[in-house]
Design brief:
Blueprint lengths: L1 E9 L2 E3 L5 E3 L2 H22 L6 E7 L4 E6 L8
Antiparallel strand pairs: 1-2, 1-3, 1-4, 4-5
Amino acid sequence: MRRYYFHFRKGGELTVDRRGMWLSDESQARTQAIQLWGALLAMVIVSGDAPEECEYEITNEDGETIFTIPFAARGSIH
């Protein structure tokens, strides 16, 4: 098991996930991130923030970004 962190970026601001989640691998981290994405997107829209300025950044316990999920249709998961 490894710990993965799910950070939220809005423009130049990064809200850091300090707790993280213990998951078996990157695939499970990606699945978890996609499941949480919908709830976060709803919060972004309700708060009046521009989704195109927001993304979900997932890192491993070494601090390496393993992938990002944009909130707007402008990008893809990478």
